[in-house]
Amino acid sequence: MEKTKQDSDFKHIGKKLLSWYKINARDLPFRQTKDPYKIWICEIVFQQTRIAQGLGHYNNFITRFPDVKTLAEAEENEVLLSWKGLGYYSRAINVHKAAQQIMNDYHGIFPDEYEEILKLKGVGKYTAAAVSSICFNGKIPAVDGNFYRVLSRLFADDFDISNSRAFNYFSQLAHLILPENVGDFNQAMMDLGSEICKPKNPLCGECPLNQDCLAFSLEKISEFPVKTKKVKAEDLELKYYFVHRNGQFLIQQRKDDFIWKKLFEFPPVISDDLNPFIKSVKTVNHKLTHKNLSIEIFNVEVDSEEIWNNFIYENKYIVTDVDGSHERSFPKPLENYIQSYDTAYRIL
DNA sequence: AATGCGGGGAT
DNA sequence: ATCCCAGCATT
Question: A291 phi and psi, to 5 degrees?
Answer without folding.
Answer: -145, 140
